[in-house]
Design goal:
The chain is 40% helix and 20% strand. By secondary structure, it is of the alpha/beta class. Strands 11-10-12-13-14-19-20 form a seven-stranded mixed β-sheet, sandwiched between helices.
Length: 420
């Protein structure tokens, strides 16, 4: 071999040696040290998310709005998370505790599910969150608001579950808002409350009674009706006998419809003030009861201030689904999804081949650590109980049913925003 050939051979060998020496050592294989375990996702596998919402019954439009808020958040990311496609396992609860538990059990039966988005109703959230938490999953909702799910008076609530969070405001302040308005602005001193026995409606009437009596008023009747009860005559007879000047009834449809319509047909209750909550701030309710709702009061979350981000998202909702969102909760659903996606991206460990490892306790910690998040529904900071939104509630009066929810929301007559 000629001298030049030897030199080329040596140069090539030196180049290969240099490249080999410069090569970074392969990372050690992933070892899970998470307190509640890790989820492994292969290079070609999707990121699976459970979705638990009420998609049948009277609140189906609210559940559908939640799913759409989630899908709009995914669309902003090209329908991918961490470079993987996303698979949604969507389960319906029917807005019942049993439905919540069953839906969560169907989802947690798959060990490949990364987290859960939902629920719509608070009664099914209580059971679903318990199943999810025990399975080691995190769960975040854009719609639940019952105080019993997170915190009451700064203390852990009865149905609190580790790993459950929400971006809708805690309605612990909703009942007190109604009570303050009734006592301070309307001059009511005797009031009645009517709930349907679930943790959401009872939580609101309990909150009303506590604040109303703290102000100096008296709740002279605390009644319960059954879900799907259409005969409101007996409970309204009790209201008449109690001499209450106001009835606070945070019921859903159709019970809320029946109670209002029956009350309006009862001459002895003509001057009794009727007040409900956000469950009836709905165009379907106003359309169903019409003029009977004129003069009625509603307590609902203070809408977020107009912002380019919220306007843009609502425009995307209209463009994709060919209709306006029924409430403002598509905003909090979008924010719940975004907070979850951010936490997944912060905690997942990626392998060179595209595999993912998700430490489940680390995911929970990342969710609870959310602070100063500039969401489309406002600035969100999640506390140790899982509440991420600052509570603020308006009292609205319905003057013109023809204006629907839009007109109702424009007629706020009182606002209460306690410090978080």
């Amino acid at each position: 071999m000629k001298k030049g050939g030897y030199l080329l051979l040596i140069a090539g060998a030196l180049t290969l040696a240099a490249a080999w020496l410069a090569r970074e050592p392969a990372p050690p294989p992933f070892t899970c040290t998470d307190a509640i375990g890790c989820l492994d996702i292969g290079p070609g596998e999707p990121v699976k998310l459970g979705v638990i919402e009420s998609l049948t019954g009277e609140v189906a439009t609210l559940g559908q709005e939640q799913v759409r808020g989630l899908k709009l958040a995914l669309a902003r990311r090209g329908d991918k998370l961490l470079g993987h496609s996303v698979a949604l396992q969507i389960e319906d609860t029917g807005c019942t505790p049993e439905g919540g538990a069953n839906a969560a059990m169907r989802i947690t039966a798959d060990p490949k599910v990364a987290a859960i988005f939902g629920t719509t109703c608070s009664c099914d959230a209580a059971t679903a969150a318990q199943v999810a938490s025990q399975a080691g999953l995190s769960m975040i909702s854009g719609n639940n608001s019952a105080p019993y799910l997170t915190a009451l008076c700064g203390q852990k609530a009865p149905c609190w579950q580790n790993g459950y969070l929400r971006t809708a405001p805690n309605e612990e302040a909703s009942g007190p808002t109604a009570a303050r308005f009734a006592y301070e602005k309307l001059g009511v001193r005797l009031a009645a409350t009517i709930n349907d026995g679930d943790i959401y409606t009872k939580g609101l009437t309990d909150g009303f009674q506590t604040e109303f009596e703290r102000q100096g008023g008296k709740v002279v009747l605390s009644a319960t009706v059954d879900k799907i009860d259409s005969d409101m005559g007996p409970v309204l007879a009790a209201v008449k006998n109690s001499k209450a000047g106001l009835v606070f009834f945070p019921l859903f449809q159709p019970e809320g419809n029946y109670l209002l319509l029956t009350a309006r047909k009862t001459p002895d209750l003509r001057n009794v003030i009727l007040m409900s909550d956000g469950a009836l701030i709905d165009d379907t309710f106003i359309a169903a009861v019409g003029q009977a709702a004129v003069g009625m009061y509603f307590v609902g979350p203070t809408p977020p201030p107009d912002s380019p981000a919220a306007t843009k998202l609502t425009g995307e909702y209209l463009a994709r689904y060919r209709e306006n969102p029924p409430t403002i909760y598509h905003l909090s659903a979008f924010d719940a999804a975004e907070i979850l996606f951010d936490a997944l991206e912060k905690t997942a460990v990626k392998d060179p081949d595209g595999s993912l490892h998700l430490p489940r306790q680390a995911l929970r910690a990342a969710l609870y650590a959310t602070a100063g998040y500039e969401g489309v529904s406002g600035r969100l900071t999640c506390d140790r109980f899982g509440d991420c939104a600052r509570p603020s509630f308006d009292v609205l009066r319905l003057d013109d049913p023809a204006m629907g929810v839009t007109g109702l929301k424009a007629n706020a007559v009182f606002t209460y925003a306690p410090d978080k």
